[in-house]
Specification:
By secondary structure, this protein is of the alpha+beta class. It has 2 domains: 79 residues, Helix Hairpins; 168 residues, Immunoglobulin-like. It has 6 helices and 10 strands. It has a 5-stranded mixed sheet with strand order 3-2-1-5-8, with no helix packed on it. Helix 2 packs antiparallel against helix 3 and helix 5 packs antiparallel against helix 6.
């Protein structure tokens, strides 16, 4: 019995450690287990979406509480016992003016930041690079279309559980670094603090390219080229998903955008022109070395503080 309990405790502890590790990886991308609300923002557009969401939440909450208070007042003061002789008032000009003007003012208050946000999303600023994204049933294709980068293109497919294990071993990382149903074989790689124009289309049916942490969501329509943009502030891997029902495997075509330093990106592009696999291996090696160096520096700093 004791042996069984110990084994259960080990399994539970292992599951908890895995969940914590996975949660840490997702948290770096603005995602948390059992998350409520929007993902953490990493772009100016998403900052505005957060602000607009908070504004509308306050307005809706106030209206809901006001209506609830009116309902309670009506039920208490105007029920048959408290008010046996009901009023025969046909209308009240003041009240009618108020309930016409106030909703108009509320809509104006909502409309101004809404139009401002819409303009910010649709007005593409001067951009540093362009990536063309094509939705397929059921994966994504990426093409780097700028001059000198025409040879860089690849398809990005979901990693199943076996493939996740293989890729994790090949990269020398824990499998928790590759979130289930989100990790892909080839990430879209972009530099940090650069404006990226994204051209989106589809080859078969409707898809939708959505990256919540960047405030990006644009339809992929066959025969049409839509555009959006983002400027990521922080390095890391960010995850999104197709957001337009596109067939039986709609739930299995995630989007992964890896944001790296300009130096890492330049090296990746040069290598990707000849061999995308070799480019990704070099990039992952650089990121791993950087992570280990940062961990070593942090450990040295902790030891210095403890010694003091």
């Amino acid at each position: 019995m004791k042996a069984i309990l110990k084994r259960l405790m080990k399994l539970t502890g292992g599951a908890a450690a895995l969940a914590a590790s996975t949660g840490a990886v997702l948290a770096e991308s603005g995602i948390k287990p059992w998350q409520l609300g929007l993902q953490a923002s990493d772009t100016e557009v998403m900052d505005s979406i957060h602000a607009f969401n908070n504004l509308t939440l306050v307005i809706v909450t106030v209206i809901t509480l006001f209506v609830l208070a009116l309902l309670v007042i009506v039920m208490v003061r105007f029920n048959s016992k408290a008010n046996p002789v009901p009023s025969r008032t046909s209308h009240n000009t003041t009240i009618e003016v108020i309930w016409t003007v106030v909703p108009i003012l509320i809509l104006v208050v909502i409309a101004i930041p809404s139009f401002r946000l819409l303009f910010k999303q649709l007005d593409i600023p001067a951009y540093d690079m362009t990536v063309k994204v094509t939705g397929y049933q059921w994966y994504w294709g990426y093409e780097y279309t700028d001059e000198g980068m025409e040879d860089v293109s690849f398809d990005s497919l979901l990693l199943d559980d076996d493939e996740r294990q293989e890729v994790a071993e090949a990269r020398g990382v824990d499998i928790s670094q590759l979130p289930r149903l989100l990790a892909v074989d080839y990430d879209m790689v972009v530099p940090v603090d650069k404006t990226v124009r994204v051209q989106v289309t589809a080859a078969d049916v409707l898809h939708s390219f959505a990256m919540p942490a960047f405030g990006v969501k644009v339809d992929a329509v066959p025969g049409r080229l839509n555009e959006t943009w983002f400027r990521a502030r922080t390095t890391g891997v960010y995850y999104g998903q197709c957001s337009e029902l596109c067939g039986k495997d709609h739930a299995y075509m995630p989007i992964a955008v890896r944001v790296v330093t300009q130096e890492q990106y330049d090296a990746w592009v040069e290598a990707a022109k000849d061999d995308i696999d070799e480019a990704n291996e070099q990039l992952m090696a650089e990121i791993d070395a950087e992570r280990k160096s940062a961990s070593a520096d942090a450990g040295t700093a902790d030891m210095t503080v403890a010694a003091r």
